[in-house]
Amino acid sequence: MPIKLENIGIAVRDLEAAIAFFVDLGLTLVGRDTVSGEWTDTAVGLDGNHAHIAMLQTPDGNGRLELFEYIHPEPNQTEDTQPNDIGMHRVAFSVDDIEQALEMAARHGCRPLRGVATYGDIYKLTYLRGPSGIVVMLAEELKKS
């Protein structure tokens, strides 16, 4: 059976701030909606599910990010995820210029967790805490093909 990744879904505190961050990073907003009703209760597994959502797409057209701001049930606030916590904890993006991407992130109040590292002669990379505490990895390929 063929399979493809449809999207990555992330619940956020502030949908507008998250959209602004990811659009500045280079994604395109392709749609917005407010969802509720029996179908969302069933699909998501939450009674009374009601959320504002936004779908963003990477410039290459292959990746999508779906952001949710829950109205009901009340969002659960958790501690910031750490890179070694079990479960999904980051979304990663390739960028042409990591310094330029970090300048953009700083305009949104987002900074690297520690700094920029070089992985062999392959990548410059960093983890930063984005909007709503989302851990975002940025990677710049050093040897462009």
What does this structure look like?
By secondary structure, the protein is an alpha/beta fold. It has two domains: 8-72, 2,3-Dihydroxybiphenyl 1,2-Dioxygenase, domain 1 (Roll), CATH 3.10.180.10; 90-141, 2,3-Dihydroxybiphenyl 1,2-Dioxygenase, domain 1. It contains three helices and eight strands. A four-stranded mixed beta sheet has the order 1-4-3-2, sandwiched between helices. A hairpin with a 6-residue loop joins strand 3 (50-57) and strand 4. The chain is globular and about 50 Å long. The two termini are 31 Å apart.
Secondary structure topology:
Layout: E1 8-11, H1 15-25, E2 28-36, H2 38-45, E3 50-57, E4 64-72, E5 90-94, H3 98-107, E6 117-119, E7 123-129, E8 135-141
Parallel strand pairs: 1-4, 5-8
Antiparallel strand pairs: 2-3, 3-4, 6-7, 7-8
What are the low-pLDDT stretches, counting only 5+ consecutive residues below 50? none
Counting structural domains, the number is: 2
Strand order of the largest sheet: 1-4-3-2
Give the topology string: H per helix, E per strand.
Answer: EHEHEEEHEEE
- Provide the gyration radius in Å: 16 Å
Mean pLDDT: 91
Helix percentage: 10-25%
Largest sheet, if any? 4 strands, mixed
Give the second-level CATH assignment, the architecture of the largest domain: Roll
CATH topology of the largest domain: 2,3-Dihydroxybiphenyl 1,2-Dioxygenase, domain 1
Structural class per helix/strand content? alpha/beta
CATH class of the largest domain: Alpha Beta
The assembly state of the depicted protein chains is single chain
CATH 4th-level superfamily of the largest domain: 2,3-Dihydroxybiphenyl 1,2-Dioxygenase, domain 1
Q: Tell me the strand percentage band.
A: 35-45%
Number of strands: 8
